[in-house]
Amino acid sequence: MRGLLFLILLLTVQSCATKKYTKTRLLPEGIKSATEETYLVVNNQKTLLHKKKIVFTGNGRIKYSKTVDAAGNLVQETKKKLWFVVESYPDRERYYCKTRWKPNQRERISCYTQKQHKQNEAIYHYNKDGTINRIVDNFNTFHTQYFYYANNELAKIVTKDKNNNLVDEVVVNCETKDEKGTCLKETRISAKTNHKEEILFSPIYD
Predict the structure, then answer these.
(1) Strands 74-80 and 85-88
(2) Which of 1, 13, 42, 80 has the smallest number of CB atoms closer than 10 Å to its CB?
(3) Do the Cβ atoms of 10 and 16 come closer than 8 Å?
(4) Rounded percentage of the chain residues whose pLDDT exceeds 70
(5) Band of pLDDT at residue 1, cut at 50, 70 and 90
(6) What predicted TM-score, i.e. pTM, was given to this entire model?
(7) What is the rounded CA–CA span in Å between residue 111 and residue 127?
């Protein structure tokens, strides 16, 4: 009985220890839901790539999300369960993603099919304020993304391969904010390919 109580306590602590999405994205408290639209920008012409609807829990984690393409077709749907997140896709099996807290401000996020076949895994390293320091792909590309901040904003994302060779460097710029400090319009430009994306974020507060 004592061992069972310890296991329940351990699982509860691990679940509560996962980082809040609002913290990782530098969002203010009190966001109830949001819509995120991502556009490709070429010669000042914008083309919608995908649109994502996000519903938050009261403590700043994602309760539900739905991503569709420009034609409105489902790309991905996620639902938060007690111990894991279910990711649904139109063309393949569901993924069941578990987050395990690790020492030194780290999380291991692993996704499996219902038959327990691992599909991906990454180690997230966080700064003390809850923002992402780097993400290490542990299964597919084995690339590492490094996140750099300036003036309490995400400024740059640098991707390197497992041999520390530069894969890409993306410059991030927030162009418009609301009165709460949420970035409403963000641009991301690849220094290597000049690929440019514009992200429009429309929050709804409590």
Answers:
(1) antiparallel
(2) 1
(3) no
(4) 91
(5) very low
(6) 0.88
(7) 24
